[in-house]
Amino acid sequence: MLKKLTSEVNHFKSQSHNFKILVLTNVVYALVQPVIDIFVAAYIMRNSNDTSKVVIYQLAIYTGIPLTFLLNGLLLKYFNIRKLYSLGMMLSGVSMIIMMSLKNLDLIGIGVAGMTMGLSFGLYWSNRDYLALSITDDENRNYYYGLETFFYTIIAIVVPATIGWFIQSKTGADSKHGAYVIITGVVFVITMLASVVCFRGRFENPIQKKYIFFKFHPLWNKLLSLAMFKGLAQGFLVTAPAMLIFKILGEEGELGKAQSIGAILAAIIIYFIGRFSKPSDRIKTFSAGLILFAIGACLNAALFNKTGVIMFLLLLLIAKPLMDLAYYPIQLRVIDIVSKIEKRGEFTYILNHEAGLYLGRLLGAGTFLVLYFAVSEDVALRYAVGIIALLQLCSIFISKNIIAQGNKIAPEEPAEGVVDEKVLEETATNLV
Asked: Where are the alpha helices (DSSP H) in 249-376?
């Protein structure tokens, strides 16, 4: 066991300096992700008891993200990418400070806090996506995302449970609000620490070219449709667990416990899939994640009780990292291919990709809000996730088509140390 662990540590050490720094930066920042994703939604629920406000907050975030992707492209002409990346992480703490300072959770205040968080996410994700693209290649991207997801999943055990316990240990509305304020302060400190780690990297800005286009290669248009389906779930899936737990399971302590179920097993599975899977295995990984998500969502819709919610969260805990582990390498490989064909900078595609996600997010959040206002809150919580999960199954067929077309344009190269039998045969024939 020790020998195997040492081997994995040595494998990580063998990666490039920027690879290691990017992973470490994202792992430190991952400590605040559960707070941002889950407990801000829980805070809105606690103080308003209105799930529509949670979704509106999420829409404000998702409106700010694509605008900031565009702004980031301009800022990269004047500022080093490390500064913008760090600023994005620290702004998430600022957004939480704005939220905690609101005396009444009205739509304007929620919108301002949401747009600020969108600004944070836009700077963080646009720069993170570019750096992940620039420091990895198709052969080590499964490992990169598997390693990150392993740490994220472990953190998803400790942080929600710890924060849930901390909030539950307080009695009275004022004490619980004070607990959220303390958590916000800790978040801000952690984002500063992540920024310090980031500055140890030797990251270079993208080569500046024109990055706004309206016509793209057909392969890229297919990826945009895949991005739209991914965005469908993102529309409110980030906050859906908090809404379901708060409505059905109870308090934040229950939320932390539910998020921890099965996380250790999921983390180990994801790490080894990322470590040892090949690019050709991505469809299997992606399909498994989508099917597990659909099963969990359908169980929640069928049962709509504590058992259904826990089963949904357990399956989601495994499904989401599986989907991400496959999706991001597929996206980056397509960028590798089409950027060479169209002779455009990679950031062009990172920016344009956000448009596909945004359209999906609007449709996903819109599905929830239509059911909420037209029928009822319970119907929206019960069926919206299921509808979206079943629609997302279309992604399996789209991704297969994307990979097949991509391999025709740019066939996968054999992994390092692996001999291509066809090349070997041709070489032997020529020697004879």
From this structure: 252-260, 263-276, 282-303, 306-342, 346-374
115 contacts 392 by C-beta, under 8 angstroms: no
Neighbours of 254 (CB within 10 A): 18
Among residues 301, 304, 361, the alpha carbon closest in space to that of 56 is found at 361
Question: Residue 170 — φ and ψ, nearest 5°?
Answer: -95, 145
CA distance 59 to 327: 23
Cα–Cα distance for residue pair 321/266, rounded to 1 Å: 9
Do 303 and 334 touch, CB atoms closer than 8 A?
no
Percent pLDDT > 70 in the chain is 88
Q: Which of 120-134, 153-167, 358-372, 407-421 has the highest mean pLDDT?
A: 120-134
Residue at 7 is within a domain:
no
| Structure tokens that stand for 124 in this block | 């963080």
Number of domains, the chain: 1
Evaluate whether residue 292 is within a structural domain: yes
Within-domain flag for 220: yes
Q: How far, in Å, CA of 145 to CA of 385, rounded?
A: 25
CA end-to-end distance (rounded Å), the chain: 48
Cβ(243)–Cβ(45) below 8 Å: yes
Q: Tell me which residue has tokens 């992604």.
A: 395
What CATH number corresponds to the domain at position 113?
Answer: 1.20.1250.20
Q: What is the largest CA-CA distance in the chain?
A: 86
Give residue 205's region: left, alpha or beta (phi > 0; psi -120 to 50).
beta
Token pair for 249: 């399971």
pLDDT at 2 over 80: no
| Pairwise CA distance, residues 230 & 370, whole Å | 20
Q: State how far the Cα of 382 lies from the Cα of 384, in Å rounded to an integer.
A: 6
For the entire predicted model, the pTM comes to 0.79
Flag whether 99 is in a domain.
yes
Whole-number Å distance between alpha carbons of 388 and 232: 6
For 109, the domain range is: 15-199+215-409
Give Cα separations from 233 to 284, 365, 368 (angstroms).
20, 8, 11
